[in-house]
Every structure is written in structure tokens, then in C-alpha cells.
Amino acid sequence: MSLVSCGHGAKPELHPNISSQGGADSLHEPLDSRASYARAGLLVAAGDLAFVGSIAFLAGASNDSTLLLINVSFSDRALTFAREGDSYHAAYDVVLDFERVGSPVRRMTSHEEVRVGSLLETTREEESLIYQHATSLPPGEAIVAISIRDAGSTHAGVVRKTVVVPRFEDGTTTAPIPALRARPRTSRERMPDLVLNPRSTAVYGRDSVALFYVESYGPSPVGRSESVPVRVTGDSVVLYADSLPWIEAGDKLRSAILRVPLAKVGFGELSVSAGGAPSSGSPLLVSFGDGLPVSTFDDMVGLLRYFASSERLHGLRELAPKDRRRAWAAFLESTDPITATPENEALHQYLARLADANSRFREDEHTPGWLTDRGMVFSALGEPDNQIEPNGAQAERPLVQVWNYQRYHTRFTFVDRGGFGRWRLTPASEADYRALMRRIGR
């Protein structure tokens, strides 16, 4: 199943948790969301077609049959689109391999097609396509391999994961399954009516709740109703706890739809457990917007230090929690150059510059590239119009670089006095940089 343009619609509101200081020391590699997905145990593909996904489990028709729910997501931009009339068309091929010791490899293939209504949609970088597939396997260890290939190019991504397929007997409960839409099953023989959330991600400010689906098996308690306890933890601290009623379906099947209020759990990499079994927790990654890194309260304000003025960030820091959503929405609107599109282009470009600065301007193993002098200027202003090295190929000390920004009518001089690759702004250039930041409102 392929869901086209999932999540398209109104521009998402992004909402940071802002603390008293930005946590620079914790931001050594803040911009690679794949690291957050991997830490959460999600499937992260290798190759030039990037996708992220997960595998969930539900009881099958018998105790010897378990449903595997395989789901992945990727961006429109990962595919090659061709124009067809008033729309754009792309296609991709999916190969699923299931390997078990002593059994032949079981392979499933499918060809999926995608149509979007505009050229702009073909360039979306955030999650916009979801593929999901349900199949049955007997309990036990198995290797699942997922390969996706763009039909219009040679681009492909692949991931392999060893999983332990659980046996759902009486008295067992599934791990919470992240979902975008969920309806309770009426029997174990039926396929679930779920649209899964492959990245287990929610956006604070756009989404009010994160949805999870859970099932429990076995006879219902006699003479009393039972509820399912729900806990959300982060950094080993319980952030939210509740108890929700089971929905009785008969056939020794009960289900529950969990709605986790984002306003009560905050941001970052969290875990959701149900049924009193923390070991069966599922990840919940609360981000500031589609395509933006999953960050903590402190980390996001630290990331924004070259994007907005210290006065504006200080104002956000000082807000009471109940006032942050509205203030952040106003902040995003005021910094968005194209309000008709779903993302804040200025913020996305800024974060892309931070990632670029991390790789280009790292000077030692302790300081990320975006926090060096050259990384700071690059992150705030972008690529210089031209760069001059007066030393040329000579080994004279100190080494000098001059960056010209014609659009700002200024230049900055960096000096490496020891020749060890540690470039510093000259005092005059540092003063010019601070003055320019004040002039352009940063």
C-alpha cells in the first residue's frame, strides 16, 4: 500500500521548548535525524534512496501465526517524476525478503505508483510517502530485508534487520504501535485498519496528540472492567501517565487507542509503554517540524543562535509554557519567506547550512564545525560571494582567509596563526560581524 502525499496540507507550526541557555555542549552532531531514528530502533536504509521505517506485531488467527506490519516512509524528492498532462508521475519497486533458519527465503515484490498535482510537490524533502505491508510469520527469529528502488533511476535503498517474532498467547499485550489512523479490530482473523506512523514522529504545535494502537489477548476479567495503564518516559523520567479503557471485541481480543498529549510530554526522544510492561515500550520522537531534527528543549534554542536575535530568543525563553505555542507560531510566521508552502524555507535552509558547516569547518574533535568562527559566519550568512587567500601556496605565517559578502557590503578576515587549521576572526572583523547581525536583526 502506498499513501501519496501523506501529511500535505497547512503549514505545520513548530514549537520549541526554550530553556535559560542553549545547550551547546550537547549539540556536537545535532542535525542528523537518522541518528535519532537509529537510537529509537527504527529501520534506517543504506543507499541513495533514503527511507525510514519500523516493524510492528499483532496476533494472527492462531497462536502459531503472528502478523508483521512493515511500514516505511520517504520523501517525494527521492523519486524521479515525469509530467503527465496536468500532474506528475513516479513509480518505485519494493522487495521484501523473509529469512528463517532452515527455511527457504520468502520474497514479496510490488510495483507502486505515485501521482502529485504540482511540480513543487515533487521536490518535497520531508516525509510525504508511506508504504506499508502486512504478512504472517510463525513466532521465532527471522531476518527481514526491505529494498526500495526508484523506477526512474538507479537510486535504491536497503535495510536488513533481525527480529524476534513474538507469540501472542493469553495474557499478552502488544507494544504500542505508532499510527496516523487506527480503528479497533473485531477479531484476530481480520486485518487491522491502521495507517501506521513509520517514523513514530509527531510535530509539537501542529499535532495535539500522538496516536498509538495496542491490543491485548485472553479472557476479560470476570466481574470487573479493566483499563490499560499508559506511561511516557524520557531520560528515565515519567513525563505522563494515564489509564484508558479497553475496547472489548470478543474472541479474546481487546484493543485500545492511546492519545498521548504532546503538550504534556515535551520534545525529544521519548518512550511509550502500555499494559504495565516498560520493556515493551515504543519510541515517540517529538520534533519541531517536518524535516527538522528531533531535539531537546535546550538543543533547539542553541541551534537557533545564528537564526534569530538573542533578544527574540530570550523572549521565547521567558514565556510561560502555556504561552509558547502561540509565540512560536508567530515567530515562525515572521521568519517564513513563503507562507503559502508547508515548510519554513528560511529555517530549513539555515539548518542545512549548520549541517554543511559541521562537515566543512570542524577544527578539532571537541568543537562542532558550526560553532567555529568560520562555521558561525557561514551558518548565519551562507556561502561568501568569493574567498581570497592572500598567502596563496606560500607557507608564510599567519595564514589568512578573506570572505567577501557583496550583498552585505562587507568582508571578514580569518587568521590561522599557528598553521594548525584553527581559524579566528580578527578583532575588527568580529566587531563588523556583530554590527551586521544587529543590522539584519540577529
Secondary-structure map:
Layout: E1 2-3, H1 33-39, E2 43-44, E3 46-47, E4 52-59, E5 66-74, E6 82-84, E7 87-99, E8 106-116, E9 129-137, E10 140-150, E11 156-165, E12 177-183, E13 193-196, E14 201-203, E15 209-217, E16 227-234, E17 237-245, E18 247-250, E19 253-261, H2 262-265, E20 268-274, E21 282-287, H3 297-303, H4 310-317, H5 321-335, H6 345-360, H7 373-381, E22 386-388, E23 399-405, E24 410-416, E25 424-425, H8 427-439
Parallel strand pairs: 14-21
Antiparallel strand pairs: 1-9, 2-4, 3-11, 4-5, 5-9, 6-7, 7-8, 7-10, 10-11, 12-13, 12-15, 15-19, 16-17, 16-20, 18-19, 20-21, 22-23, 23-24, 24-25
Helix pairs in contact: 6-7
Provide the descriptors you would attach to this structure in a database record.
442 residues, alpha+beta, six-stranded antiparallel beta sheet, five-stranded antiparallel beta sheet, 8 helices, 25 strands, globular
